[in-house]
Structure formats: C-alpha cells, structure tokens
C-alpha cells in the first residue's frame, strides 16, 4: 500500500494533490474531476495516510545530502542520511531453579538420613538488543555509525538488497546487515537509483 503525505491528503486530497505527488497522474486527474471520487476516495486515503504514519513520494533524481558526522572522500556524494537501528535477538540465562528428589529416613530423635539429591537448571529467556545509529548511503559506500554493530562497506561489493516494511537488509558477500528504519521505501529508491545510474539532483 502506498503512503501519502497525511497533511496534504487531509487538506487537498479532494483535489488529488497527494496522488500527483506520488506520481499517480491518472488517479490525480480523476480525483480532481470528481472531488476525490465524490469524497469517498479522499476519506479512505486520509485514513490510510494517518494510519500509515507518514508519506512516500518516489524520487525522480538522486538527492544530495550534506552529511553530519561522515567524512566524504574526494568526489563522493552522500544521497541519504537517517536514523536506523540494528536489532539482535539473544538467548541468555535469567536465573537458576533447583529441583529436589528423594526422601529422608528418621533413625533417632532429631536425627535423619536424607537420600536423593537436587538438580540445578538454568532458566533461559530471549531478549532483544537494539543498537541505534545513523545510516549513510553515498555513491561509494554504505555506512552505519553506531556504538555496536557499526559497519562500512563499499557500494561496489553490494550483492543483494532487500527492503521491507520497517527495515532493510544489505548483503555484502556472505554477510547480511539487517537494519530497522522507517525510511525503507526511500532507501530502496536511492539504492536502485545508484545501481541504475539515476541523475543526481545537484
């Protein structure tokens, strides 16, 4: 499902402006001529825009972003900078529990003999660790700046790229680098634009 600018959709959706911005010219004209499909399409798109929590407008040219915190090489251009986090699921020991089996036999007053023994078991739990950082994408490399799980890889070694709802996965050789981000659609467009030689918006 496409995401549209929620405020543009709310205020100007009956004219189809959000459809034009998303590159859907035909639907935009239809919305303009029919008042947002007689108000029904406008209402549906507005609800979806606010439930989706943002907007998505396909890029026509590769953006140029002045990066904060990243030193660029000569001739290197930064096309993306945004927040992301790496999430790792770990299995750890949360504590221990003991089980006793056996019994006791009384042999005299105040004296007994115990038989059997106790076993100690580890109680494990699954925890999720998030490491927040900044993702940079340039025409030369992909950089994730973070205290943990940081990486820097040349773009030329990118073997696979998989965007999904709420995240992206960069594959360099045999190693995958999954990152969670709200900008997966924009990152997909930028990576595709770099690979396909899209024009840079200077």
Describe this structure as you would to a colleague:
With 202 residues, this protein is of the alpha+beta class. The chain folds into three domains: 6-52, no CATH class; 78-89 and 130-195, Pleckstrin-homology domain (PH domain)/Phosphotyrosine-binding domain (PTB) (PH-domain like), CATH 2.30.29.30; 90-126, no CATH class. Helix content is 25%, strand content 44%. It is built from five helices and seven strands. It has a four-stranded antiparallel sheet with strand order 1-2-3-4. Strands 5-6-7 form a three-stranded antiparallel sheet, with helices on one face. Helix 1 (6-12) runs antiparallel to helix 4 and helix 3 (25-38) packs across helix 4. It is elongated, with a radius of gyration of 28 Å. It starts with 5 loop residues before the first helix and ends in a 7-residue tail after the last helix.
Descriptors for this entry?
single chain; 202 residues; alpha+beta; PH-domain like; 4-stranded antiparallel sheet; elongated
Question: Brief overview, please?
Answer:
The chain is of the alpha+beta class.
Mean of all residue-level pLDDT scores: 83
Strand content: 35-45%
Task: State the domain count.
Answer: 3
How helical, in percent, are the residues?
25-40%
The CATH architecture assignment of the largest domain turns out to be: Roll
CATH topology of the largest domain: PH-domain like
- The name of the CATH superfamily of the largest domain reads Pleckstrin-homology domain (PH domain)/Phosphotyrosine-binding domain (PTB)
Q: Note the main sheet.
A: 4 strands, antiparallel
Strands, total number: 7
* Main sheet strand line-up: 1-2-3-4
Provide the CATH top-level class of the largest domain. Mainly Beta
Distance between the termini: 30 Å
Low-confidence stretches: none
Gross morphology? elongated
Helix count?
A: 5
Alpha-carbon Rg, integer: 28 Å
